[in-house]
Specification:
Length: 343
């Protein structure tokens, strides 16, 4: 049975073109002299985000964590938003792997405020103080919102003033660029390193990229090896990444349009609250508490109808559109939701 899967954009299946490219990929040992297909992907990714070099990693988490490891030393402080993926959804690995202290800032608007960052950066060489080793930004944010470029630019200017590096968690960087209607390089010029995922809306089966200066990526590759991420004939999966980067970026607008449709229609169902202003990329968040039905009941009924959704997290159900969800699927989902919630 074919399911309509709205749990995430990580569920996207590789396209036929990806499978063909994987089949045909020219490969080598990437730990030894470099795999030709991986090298090609790394060059393309670096170029796409306007950096000197990039490295192919297994996951977004590995990408963020190797960037943190490379930028910092044990005991450093890393400034980031309290709702950043790095602090909420990466298993505490910044502490485990890099031995850094995450200094989270409250973000009412969903992004770091440059003034707060400046106030938090350690300026004196006080014997009690850790050193500020890194500032981490996120765009698009995992709550589906996009950070305006000028807000990133403000933080970047402060970071440069105090000579602190900036890393961008850009898991959905291309979705952010689409929403802002800019080339991704307009975003990534305000960060020293960036991670983006090939395996989310871009539909690759596996993989993320970390980009930065040539010197940074050389050192980051050593941290990737340390984390067990030195892969051998990884051109087999990098081949799908190349298709993701070249062919799948151009269709992300379909996911955004479907999310908009889903949000508009969902908001018309009585007792479901959707903040339409927050629908900026391919994600819709709905407060279902007014419906008077348990999440497990709604999730179970949806499953019976061939739709996979997740229960609420922090009071919101999240619905994510992706390549394998059509406009017709969205309308079917809305019909099912009406039936479940209004019966
Ligand atoms: C998904 C995601 C990650 C991590 O990617 P994985 O490949 O799941 O490890 C990091 N940051 C953000 C904002 C994400 O949405």
């Amino acid at each position: 049975m074919r399911f309509i899967d709205l749990r995430s954009d990580t569920v996207t299946l590789p396209t036929d073109e990806m499978r063909q490219a994987m089949f045909e990929a020219e490969v080598g040992d990437d730990v030894l002299e470099g795999d030709p297909t991986v090298i090609k992907l790394e060059e393309m990714a670096a170029e796409a985000v306007g950096k000197e070099a990039s490295m192919f990693v297994v996951s977004g988490t590995m990408g963020n964590e190797s960037a943190i490891y490379t930028h910092t030393k044990c005991g450093d402080e890393v400034i980031l938003a309290d709702n950043a993926h790095i602090v909420t959804h990466e298993v505490g690995s910044a502490a485990v792997i890099s031995g850094v202290q995450l200094r989270t800032l409250r973000t009412d608007k969903g992004y770091l405020d440059a003034k707060d960052v400046e106030a938090t950066i350690r300026k004196e060489n006080n014997i009690h103080y850790p050193e500020t080793g890194l500032i981490c930004l996120e765009n698009a944010r995992s709550d589906g919102s996009v950070v305006p470029i000028d807000k990133m630019a403000d933080v970047y200017a402060i970071a440069k003033k105090y000579d602190v590096p900036v890393h961008l968690d850009g898991a959905r960087l291309f979705n952010a660029a689409l929403y802002l209607n800019v080339d991704v390089r307009e975003i990534t010029k305000y960060t020293d390193s960036v991670m983006f995922c090939l395996s989310k809306g871009l539909c690759a089966p596996i993989g993320s990229m970390v980009a930065g200066s040539k010197e940074f990526i050389e050192r980051a590759k050593k941290s990737r090896k340390l984390m067990g991420g030195g892969m051998r004939q990884s051109g087999v999966i990098a081949a799908a990444g190349i298709v993701a980067l070249t062919k799948m970026r151009g269709r992300l607008h379909v996911d955004h349009e479907n999310a908009r449709l889903l949000a508009d229609e969902l908001s018309k169902i009585p007792n479901i609250k959707v903040d339409l202003n927050r629908v900026q990329i391919n994600m819709v968040f709905a407060d279902m508490s007014g419906v008077g039905k348990d999440d497990s009941y709604i999730v179970g009924k949806m499953f019976e109808k061939g739709i996979k959704i997740l229960p609420s997290e922090d009071g919101f159900m999240r619905f994510v559109t992706n390549k394998d969800v059509t406009k017709k699927d969205v309308l079917y989902f809305i019909d099912c939701m009406k039936e479940i919630c209004l019966s």
